[in-house]
Amino acid sequence: MSNRTDPDRALDNERLAKFLERIDRGDKIEADDWMPDDYRNQLIKLISMHGVSEIMGALPEKEWVPKAPTLRRKLAIMAKVQDEMGHGQLLLRVVEDLLAPLGKNRDDLLQDLFSGRLKFHNVFHMEAPTWADAGVIAWLVDGAAIITQTMSLETSYAPYARALQRICAEEKFHAQHGESIVLELAEGTPAQRQMLQDAVTRWWPSLLMFFGPPEGGTVSSNQLLNMRYKIRSQTNEELRQVFFHKYVHRIYHLGLTLPDDTIRYDEAEGVWHYQQPDWDRFVQIVRGNGPCSAQRLRLRKTSYEEAKWVRDAMLAAPRAEHMAGGRL
Amino acid sequence: MNSAHEDQFTVYEVFSQKNPASGFVHQFSLLAPNHEAALLMARENFMRREPCINIWVVNREDIHGLTPEERTSLERLDNKSYRETKGYGDVQAKWRRHKEAYESKAAFTQKGG
Amino acid sequence: MSEHSYVETAEEARRNPEYVRALQELLFQAADDDYILAYRGAEWLGLAPHIEEDVAFSSMSQDMMGHAAMLYEMLEELGAGKADDLAHMRSPDAFRNAIIIERPNGTGDYADQPHYDWAYAIARYSLYGVFKQIRLEALAYSTYVPLAQAAGKMQREHHYHVRYWHMWFKRLASSTDDARARLNAALEQVWSDIGELFLLGRASASIVGFGLIAGEDDISQRWMNATRNMFASNGIDWPGDWGVPVQKGREGQHTDDLAQAVSTLSEVYRLDPAASW
Fold first, then answer.
1. Separation in Å, CA of A314 to nearest CA in chain B
2. In this complex, which chains have at least 3 CB pairs below 8 Å with chain A?
3. What is the ipTM score, two decimals?
4. Which position among A238, A310, C102, C138 has the lowest Cβ density within 10 Å, counted as fewest Cβ atoms?
5. What dihedral angle (degrees, nearest 10) is formed by the CA atoms of C144, C147, C153, C159?
6. Which residue positions does the secretion signal occupy (chain C) (predicted)?
7. CB-based contact B31 C52, cutoff 8 Å
8. Subunits in contact with chain B (3 or more CB pairs closer than 8 Å)
9. Looking at B10-24, B41-55, B74-88, which range is the least confident one?
10. Helix H or strand E encompassing B23
């Protein structure tokens, strides 16, 4: 047996067995606990994508902050964009602690984002051409996010769970902020209603894509690993079904239509049937070929690179204060 | 001048106090160049909606904690009921018994008298 | 200001048209300064040099826009029009902010290829911050009691802004040569506009006469004392006489940058000002 001739490996196997026991027991793992490499890597993959998506997600809505129609709406959407950046902060901090033993930090994550190695959610590659888009993003995109994040609250990785708890509390405010915008438009003039209908129609395929392709019986090795480690236990399709349950009727209640004549709930099966979005397009979008991918990445990259001197200044050891005779 | 890997932001752990009767509670951590900047960024990052009357930031390196192995030593046997009120459940019953005995004795004396 | 009589309510103020005219003029100056600078701050959202920084900066832009909203509401009570109309429906020549407030953050559009200058942001926010502090202190003695009370409330939030921008000012002044050079260049830029901040516009005499706020010289002197200290403690030489821009913002003359800002701010509202949004 190789175990006997390789004490390190034997030790690792023992640790792994103990680790899996803890996972099975429902124990929560902390950053300084021993963890197998693939557990760490799965967490890094999942949480860094989540984190940069929040940060990229600030950009489409940020476009609407100055344009928001009233003072109150301007303030509310500014607070919302702030929360998105704040969520990015929480999640990146969690990943940074996971990356530290590998000698990597936040800057590496951002470089991975710029180079396209690190992907962000499909929804944030899309255009938001009207004010109604800002409402639909807050109502339905955040609604979809609440579903995936609430389902992940049980994650085995405690620092992620703690970040998610904060995030979920704020997402509820976001959804209400979105509902408030959407209801105002739905109750408004014909032009406002049309603006809202167009936005719902525009966002529907992206919302379906948000949860990822349906498994269709085969679950990827990636997902199997997440389930084994109790990092994330629901499948894409399960989450999408929860979304339908929660939102399809609400959309109808506002007198709006969906760009899918086939969507229906099958009582007997307890399942929503719907028209699949173009999953090839999904792959293209996430790879950075969506309508706004290049522009938003450029925005993030330019601002980050042009502010390098500021970070250098923040990190430089301060000179002696109260210097006599400064230079202007 | 310095690459990002040589000069790093410091991780500060953030604690806050809700009201004078409550203790400081750990909130989260942030990256800052120094404690002054950390203090100035802490509330807006973690307590935008919660009340907060005071804040501490602590350089993570200055926090001494237990290792995962040492943490297991915090588990204790469930044999310390003498430290808790639940270990004195019989006290109330005894008081009740004494009260009842006293009252029935008083009633008997009254009747007898 | 004890020789002035205090005005307790909007209703009472409206009995004296001259008083209201002077008061409105002053309120527009303060409201428009905060509103337009909050807009400039909002353009920075998501683009600040450090994520934690971005979050904190946004709070200050929200505070400033909140202060502007309070002042527009005060104007609404005084019969100037609906607060949201004041924020969205006025033409640029009705704005009373100083020119330094409307200057862009750098080149480029906030949603596409912005090249923003953090040193300019620090220089402008720091020096405006000192000014706003002094203006709020002076307004706390205003004969218009609702304004004096509002100024007291705003001071609490603004105190944080002052501490924050001072931290940054100190940081840039005392770190790398590059940062210091950029700060100095930005200060030079700010300096050429800063003199207008203290002006009270065409209604200056009646604004001061009614005891609504201290005079221009008084405010600028106080600002100079505070700023001299800030410069000295950070080893920055006093730049000498300040400049004023060609346009008189306090009298409604503005640059194209304001026209652009106002058109962005009102883009949706103007689609249908009668609609509910």
1. 6
2. B, C
3. 0.96
4. A238
5. -100
6. none
7. yes
8. A, C
9. B74-88
10. none
Q: Is C42 within 8 Å of A298 when comparing Cβ atoms?
A: no
| Region C17-271: CATH code | 1.20.1260.10
Burial class (CB in 10 A: 0-12, 13-18, 19+), A157: buried
Average pLDDT over residues A116-127: 95
**Cβ proximity of C88 and C265 under 8 Å:** yes
- Overall average pLDDT of the C125-143 stretch: 98
Flag whether residue B5 sits within 8 Å of chain A, measured between CB atoms. yes
Give the pLDDT confidence of B76-103 residue by residue, as tens digits: 898 999 999 888 989 999 999 999 999 9
Tokens of C3: 């020789």
pTM assigned to the model: 0.93
List CB contacts (< 8 A) between B33 and chain C.
171
Q: With beta carbons under 8 A apart, name residues in chain C contacting B30.
A: 52
Interval C26-40: pLDDT, tens: 999 999 999 999 999
Question: Which of B1, B31, B41 is opposite residue C56, by nearest beta carbon?
Answer: B41
Q: Is residue A281 part of a domain?
A: no
**CA nearest neighbour of C52 among A3, B70, A82, A108:** A82
Query: Does C276 contact chain A (CB < 8 Å)?
Result: yes
The Cα–Cα gap between A261 and C190 comes to: 59
Count CA atoms within 13 Å of residue C148 on its CB side.
16
Query: B5 pLDDT band (50/70/90 cuts)?
Result: very low
Per-residue pLDDT at A327: 41
CB A178 within 8 A of CB A133: no
Is A288 domain-assigned? no
| Total H helices, total E strands in chain A | 14, 2
**C 124-163 → A contacts, CB under 8 A:** none
Phi and psi torsions of B64, nearest 5°: -105, 120
| Cα–Cα distance, B48 to A121 (Å, whole number) | 26
Neighbour subunits, C (≥3 Cβ pairs < 8 A): A, B
At A328 the pLDDT is 40
Residues A181-206 pLDDT 10s:
999 999 999 999 999 999 999 999 99
Interface check A190 vs C, CB under 8 A: no
Asked whether the beta carbons of residue C46 and residue A79 sit closer than 8 angstroms, the reply is: no
**What's the mean pLDDT in C48-73?**
98
Residue of A78, A92, A110 to mutate, testing the C interface (most C Cβ within 10 Å of its Cβ): A78
Of B7, B28, B31, the CB nearest to A106: B31
pLDDT at residue B8, as a whole number: 84
Cβ(C57)–Cβ(C44) below 8 Å: yes
* Structure confidence at residue A37 as a pLDDT band (50, 70, 90): very high
- The whole domain housing A196 covers 24-112+126-211+222-258
Cβ under 8 Å to C: A residues 85-144: 85-86, 88-89, 92, 106, 131
Number of domains in chain A: 1
Does B10 lie at the interface with A, CB-CB under 8 angstroms?
Answer: no
Q: What is the signed CA dihedral for A186, A192, A197, A201, rounded to 10 degrees? A: -130
- Look at residue B24 and give its three-state secondary structure: strand
Q: At what angle do helices A106-115 and A71-99 cross, to 10 degrees?
A: 110
Residues 6+ positions from B95 with CB-CB distance below 8 Å: none
Q: Nearest by CB to A81, which of C39, C45, C269?
A: C45
